[in-house]
Amino acid sequence: MAIRIVQVDAFTSTPFHGNPAAVCVLPGPAEEKWMQAVAAEMNLSETAFLYREEGGFRLRWFTPTVEVDLCGHATLASAHVLWEDGHLPRGERARFFSKSGPLTADARDGLIELDFPAGPTRPAQAPADLVQGLGVAFNFVGVTPFDYLVEVASEEIVRAVRPDMSALARVDTRGIIVTARATTAKYDFVSRFFGPRAGVPEDPVTGSAHSALGPYWKSRLGKDSFFAHQASLRGGDVRVAVSGDRVKLGGQAITVLRGELV
Fold first, then answer.
1. Same domain, 23 and 59
2. Same structural domain for residues 187 and 97?
3. Which domain holds residue 45?
4. Which of 6, 105, 147, 206 is in the most buried spot, having the most CB atoms within 10 Å?
């Protein structure tokens, strides 16, 4: 039986910008080896697989090489596909069961708003491979539940980083977030995300990273709501609101490709 697969650009309203994710709505559970093979075939930063369970949808995410515990842009893309392809009435809350617990997505104010667990950041010593891999001066180094978070002095430094991926791949973490306070007027902060150890050299827009960036910049800027930009080549915008131990992540999505796995 052919299985439908949809490619969506997330955290953007413009095709070929934001972060592409493949979404595969299944009739039921699938073998992990098969899902990993499909993700490798799609060769995107994430491929999402979901199927209906009582009260919502089971959701799993795979990079081309590994399964991950949390992914923002592929969750946003999944909600978009559920509504667009008629798996849920348009605008009805999408409920997901994941390795990071229950997640939801709502249509609100022209955006898809995700409700994610907040990721606290604690200070850490920078390993030598992180210093070598980024090649810039650090204002702060910390660890989140999944990644290293590095603050640098300016937006210009974030945009100019040319990492040594071989060195970063030796850092024992899912990925590395590099961030700075924005000088571009409409943004509060900017970031980039590198995950060579997970098979993603640079992720275009990383929703799960913003679940840590929101609380981090709340502590630095003294406010709860932000408009953030991930300064990859494709680029993307994320609205971030911190509420206790949860973070709301808002963005747009657009379908760019539909096909079948035969």
1. yes
2. no
3. 3-116+249-261
4. 206
Taken in order 167, 194, 120, 32, the sign of the CA dihedral is: negative
Looking at the annotation, which residues are catalytic?
46
- Residues 73 and 149 grouped into a single domain: no
C-alpha 113/C-alpha 24 separation (Å) is: 20
From the CB of residue 218, how many other CB atoms can be counted at a distance below 10 Å? 18
For residues 30-62, one letter each, b for 16 or more C-beta atoms within 10 angstroms of the residue's C-beta and e for the rest, the string is: eeeeebbebbeebebbbbbbbeeeeebbebbbb
List strand residue ranges (DSSP E) for the chain, in order: 3-10, 19-25, 46-53, 56-62, 67-68, 94-98, 101-108, 111-117, 122-123, 140-143, 147-151, 175-181, 189-195, 200-203, 225-230, 236-243, 246-251, 253-261
Taking the model in full, what pTM does it have?
A: 0.93
Amino acid (1-letter code) at residue 43 = N
112 and 226 in one domain? no
Q: Are 230 and 193 in contact (CB under 8 A)?
A: yes
Shared domain check, 130 and 86 = no
User: The domain that contains 146 carries what CATH number?
Assistant: 3.10.310.10
Instruction: Quickly tell me which residue has 């071989």 as its tokens.
Output: 166
Q: How many residues does the chain have?
A: 262
Q: Do 143 and 45 lie in a common domain?
A: no
Walk along the chain (262 residues) in steps of 10 and give the mean pLDDT of each run: 94 96 97 98 97 98 96 98 96 96 95 96 98 98 98 98 98 97 97 96 97 98 98 97 97 97 92
With contact defined as beta carbons under 8 Å apart, do 228 and 191 qualify?
Answer: yes
